[in-house]
Amino acid sequence: MLADLPESSTEADASVVRVLSYNIRSMRDDVAALSRIIRACAPDVVCVQEAPRFFRWRKAAARLARESELVYVTGGGTASGPMILTSLRAHVEHAEDVLLPRRRGLHQRGLATAVLRFGRARLGVVSCHLSIDADERYAQGRLLLERVAGLGVSHAVVAGDLNDRPDGRTFGLLAGELQDGWAVEPWGREHTTRLGDPLQRIDAVFATGGVEVLGCGVPMGLRGVAESDLRAATDHLPVLAALRVPVG
């Protein structure tokens, strides 16, 4: 199935960029399986949620990047969980971590953001993990859209764990302003909860208008990855999208 999703490429007028979104539960599970899955997806960009953010979190982030054959860009402890990794194909123009307003009694949330260049194509990237509280989550969704608009690029991608379903208010807010990758061009598996858990799609990849979604969904049948790896790596499944990003 992986072969059905377009590979990374650079053309005269666009670049095909593979974006992976993955909640890794602070690397508390099987890190070897996690790294195998990420490598098998062959991503250009990984938007991580629940990256380690406390004791020696930078060392853990460096380990994941190294074992996944990627490089650390931004986030982790400084964004309260969201993180961005990339392949060497990406040129980092700008990176910034943003802490979101927090309601008393709820976890601190944040955004990891970057502006990347692939050839002559520029892509804004936001990795997010939104609140479990419906009202706080909706407010965060509005701030997220403001942050995307403020990246200063024509094309952007938002990827993360929304803690909301497609029929939810915050998911609907984002899907009303951005392209929901799975809804536009479904590929692979829809539901992002771990195999054997109740079926839900709470993780997603969104793109701004002008970005062509070539395919988006949970990759299954990855070469060198067993279904047991998908269960062992973390409590979410990865979401992989291939996007054609125009120049300019």
Report on this model:
- The protein is α+β, with helices and mostly antiparallel strands and 248 residues long.
- It has a single domain (2-246), classed as Deoxyribonuclease I, Chain A (4-Layer Sandwich).
- Helix content is 23%, strand content 32%.
- The chain contains 6 helices and 13 strands.
- The strands form 2 sheets. Strands 1, 2, 3, 4, 5, 12 and 13 form a 7-stranded mixed beta sheet that branches.
- A hairpin with a 3-residue loop joins strand 1 (9-10) and strand 2 (14-23).
- The protein is globular, with a radius of gyration of 16 Å.
- The two termini are 31 Å apart.
- The mean pLDDT is 96.
- Pfam families: Exo_endo_phos.
- This is Endonuclease.
- One of its GO terms (molecular function) is hydrolase activity.
- Residues 20-236 form the Endonuclease/exonuclease/phosphatase domain.
Largest sheet: 7 strands, mixed
**CATH superfamily grouping:** Endonuclease/exonuclease/phosphatase
Query: What Rg do the Cα atoms give?
Result: 16 Å
- Count of all domains: 1
CATH class: Alpha Beta
CATH domain fold name: Deoxyribonuclease I, Chain A
Question: Helicity range of the residues?
Answer: 10-25%
DSSP strand count: 13
Structural class: alpha+beta
Judging by the overall fold, what is the CATH architecture? 4-Layer Sandwich
Percent strand equals 25-35%
Give start-end ranges of low-pLDDT stretches: none
Count helical runs: 6
SSE order:
EEHEHEEEEEHEHEHEEHE
What assembly state would you assign to the polypeptide chains in this entry? Answer: single chain
Shape estimate: globular
**Straight-line distance between termini:** 31 Å
What's the rounded overall pLDDT mean?
A: 96
